[in-house]
Amino acid sequence: MGKTSKDKRDVYYRQAKEEGWRARSAFKLMHINEQFGILDNVQRAVDLCAAPGSWSQVLSRKLFDCCLTDDQKSEVKIIAVDLQAMAPIRGVIQLQGDITKESTANAIIAHFDKTSDKKAQLVVCDGAPDVTGVHEMDEYMQNQLIVSALSIATFVLETGGTFVAKIFKGNANCLLESQMLTFFKDFHIYKPPSSRPSSIEAFVVCIGFRLPNGYIPQIINPARDDIRLLARKTGSAVNRRLVPFIACGDLNGASDELSTKFEDEFTSEDYEMTYDDMIRDVDFPEEFKDELEDVLLDEIAVRSVENFQTHCLW
Amino acid sequence: MSAKQILFTDALSVNISNNSLLTAVGNEVFYLRRNSIVRVTNKMHYKKIHGSVCNQKSELTGLILLFAENEFSLYKYDLTQKEMFILIYEGETKDWINAAIYIKDEEGCQFVLHMAHSSLLRLQYDNMNNMKFGKCTVLELARCTDYSMLYNTALYGSSYNKLIIISGNSFGEILIWQPHTPVNFNNSARSNIYPLLLRLKAHNGVVFSIDFNLTAQLLVTTSDDRSLKLWKLNSNLEMKFDSSLIKPLCSCYGHTARVLCAIIAKYGDRIFIISGGEDSYICVWSQTGEMIFKRREQFGASIWRLAFDHVSAKLYSTGSTGNILTYNLKNILVSKKNYSIQQMHMGSSNEFLIKVKYLNYSTIIALSNKNNMYYMRLVNSQKTPIWESVSIFPAYKCTVLTVSDNIVATCGYQRVTLLSYHVDTGCFKQLYDGIKLEGLIQSFHFLTKQLYLISDEYGNCLLLKGCNMDVEGSINISNCRNTWITAAVLVKSNCFIISCRNGNIMLVTREKSSHLQLKKILKGLHGKIGSIVLKLLKIDDKYAYILSAAHESTLRVICLNLTDYRLTVLQRQSVPLAWIEAMPTLDVLIGFNDNHLVAWSHKNGVILQLQCGGGHRCWDYQLNNEVLDIIYIKQKRVFHHREQLYNEAPGCLSRAFRNKWHIRSCNIIQIVEQNNNSQPYLVSAGDDNIIKISQLNGKSFNPCAELHTHISTVRHLVLHPIKSETDVIYWLIFSVGGRAQLCINKFEPNGPVASELCSHTVRINSDGNNALLDARLMAVNVLQSATDGTFFLYVASADGKIRLLQWQLEKPSQLVLDYIIDIKRCPLQMQALNNHNLLLITTTNGILYGFENSLRFKRFEIQLHATSISAFETLYDGLHLHILSGGDDETIKHTIIKTTDMTILQSVKFSEIHNAQITALNLHLSQGACQTIYAYTCSMDKQIYKLNLKTLQYNRIGFTCLSDVKGILNINQCLFIYGCGLQVIALDNK
Predict the structure, then answer these.
(1) B759 vs B717: CA distance, rounded Å
(2) What is the pLDDT of residue A97?
(3) Is residue B659 included in any domain, yes or no?
(4) Distance CA A272, CA A282 (A)
(5) B140 touches chain A (CB under 8 A)
């Protein structure tokens, strides 16, 4: 990716070479672990966009290699997902797949113990799009990737699980925080010391996964899919409201000029049910309760989408 | 906030239509026509313009569509009106717009926007009532069945259903689809999905650009994999999209980094492909994939876009520092292949030439392997010039052939010969031939027309005068064998400087006649190699400045003190040549890169690259009226190449959009304010390892000097004045950066002259040993002792160590560790306040530390922010110390500290202002009766705010279009914002 020069070879680069890590980014995950203890007692982990595999190496050394017995080792499942293949790592199962596809999520879950219905305790993603050098475009692409990573995490994480992903610090950290808090108890942005101060990268560390009541996991492609259609795909009214928000921070749902062509499939009873579910759910994040409460009550009352004037054309 | 004065950032759009050019730098749009530049007011938008489409209605009127990220705007233009450009519509989309096109054949004013996930928005602009703003109607949202992330899209077509959409994604695939025959056909719907018609694996990495031409049946793609690929496009217009449509023709390799753009250019009836890369080179390729021409065009910055004017053959390129440069390709495009390189035949004998030199602009002199001398007169006739023998030359094996002003000198074993050439008659005359030294003579240098310097393999050296070669003096420069003179320059009539092959620079004087004295030796100026070029730059009563170049990529300037004959190295400059051989003018250097001969200009960058084989060959040049002639020997044959050096297209563009700003992110700017009301200097440094000194001159920005002492990125620098009784004599520049490097340089505003003092690697620990690793230095601060003038340097390194070092101006190469502390976290900002005995340090975990100046005691520690404090400023108002800090936690804090006991009087948090991390702050005290502290702040969200710290009111005063902002300065009622570029915004005088 991009240019390499001897100049870029710093402390961690050399240390990585000495200790046999595939990339210096291994230290970032280790530093995140030092700060948040994300690897403590973890047996099932997923590494998204894994290649060349330095984060998988960390998972392998910290989760697999430290096991004393074969029985313990067999309990550890580390799944590395990437479009491209990489050299094998001890204790890591490789999965070649696209993280924007639901089939990949199913393939990941299939590797865990099906009988006890176990899911992943940790999902990490150090993936970044190929940078262009135009910072705005790179940030945009990274945001797309984050939403994809988050939507696959909603499939594979167990309740209480942890999610770590790379972000490019840019414009929308507040929004990102609200988006993440829809699914997690705690949200942190952390820049490990091994990440160059000059680079705009940082990491989100989200702890305490919980699916909002009524939300059915689904794959979201924010820029591309018709969010309104996508929001209705699962048939869940919660999804209908949350998906546009996860995808583009839109709390109005997807009211746009094109919306008139869709027939509203939800009746006011659907909304009432959703509303009741939400109010009863103690785990539901308070700030969204407020937001959604208004919206749902509106929907119940009006039952029609206003075709209001907006400059957003699609 | 008013109009821009200076904006150096990504220029991402350039567009030619008929006689006009539409281009953009950052968010600023310019329309150029017949040498006049019109700025298209784009007040509301701060997003960088990524592309534009021009729809000309008549010679002077039309519509312009601009797109920036997910926004677009429509302008109506009429060049006959006073207000030429009028905004008539603006809108936004959900996804990143990566291409747009007008569809000419459709009814009304229709255009499409193509977005980064294969979706296409078909829009119609209507303005029924002729209001200022019209309306855009969505006619259709078309999406392709594939939705991979696209980096580039090319659109072609004049009717909607026949639009051809060719995109490239990050997997190196080309995707083709058309908005006709949807897979979910539904008459009532305005949203349809269309099948992907063709998917083709083209590259091994992101596809950065695509261009195609149906009449030429050619498609070109460029990629991350450093190649461009040419494809044959079978263009029967009723296309059937299958693999027979596109056939690979060839891959072109020539760029040394990612190829960011390529266009297909038609000139006359020939088709060319022109590409631009991250390596700052443009390449011109033939339709069969041969490289015709290569040139560095943007001073090292990435080339984003290209446009070609097929009438004038001008090529426009835009780059990441906001340069829009033109180059006229006419000569290259009309000439037949290799026309410029001519072979100069020797005839059929088995004699060949081993040495060639220009005798004057029209005559070449040469020596053959059979020790014969030849010459060739280049006359402007159809007749091919021939080699004629110089019969009076006494054939012997020569080691040296050198020429000056129609005098030819040859040397061999002990022997020297001098011939003169008469230009009018074409006759040679022997001036001298005889034995002069005991060994093989290895060098002959003309100090003047009458004064010569020769040396042999034993280091014996003679100064000779006149045609009779009278010995004026002799000296032995070395006892070792194979040490001879590589370059020599006469400084004054009684002193000259020579460079020896072992790397020593020697100053030789002639006190009395026939006695040469070695006064001074400067060792290892270029390491262990001798200088090839020594050039006297400037001489006055006290000093002489000499430039030296050798077979390496660094030029050096040495200063000779004419009173005590002290030689000091003043400055160095890195140039993109691996090996320098000649310097025809102060602007131009000629040398070699691998197997290329390269001519490089300070002003224009690389201006010639000639593939002639490696550097160890005999070659010579002649520069005459900007025409450079090169002769060289390759495989026993002599070749000639002629090049017009500065082939710029003249016009307003060459002046308006041309700067030499940092080609990578700028990390720090400090100001040198001058007492005598003259314009301030800016000292800036960044990730391009260079410290630049520029002067502001009204609205222009003049580069004055550069310092190339850093081997890695420069993170921070501070200035310290050295004063006389009354005035500042010069400034010291203390700079730190990657690989633990600390550099100290000197800058004299009068001149201006920048010179190097020293460079240190700061890694010493308290136990006297060096740290194992070179941690990057993040910040430096300097205090000077009032008693003995010793400097106290505070240097913060990325591993958390803060060092206090002692340094003296008299002993620049000595650096003594006074004290070291470890704060465990990476420091970001540091400020030493002498009057308050306080050193403030901020870290990546949001802590502000206050230490005593001795570093021995910590005075306080506050957790000011939740995360990194990247922006930090202090101001003492006479009573209290005001600290303004901005963090990655998106908050700004104003903290007031009582300086006597360091108690915190107040700490106000502003968290509602910016919605991204705050990276730039500037504090200033308003003049007048009630002193109020104001602050200007800028963040990654690109907003600029003004804060009143007294009333706690704030308002947004504007935006910057720069990404990755690193700092903000307030100079002469202007805000200077720097980061990925530089933007200057004038403040309103309110």
Answers:
(1) 13
(2) 83
(3) no
(4) 17
(5) no
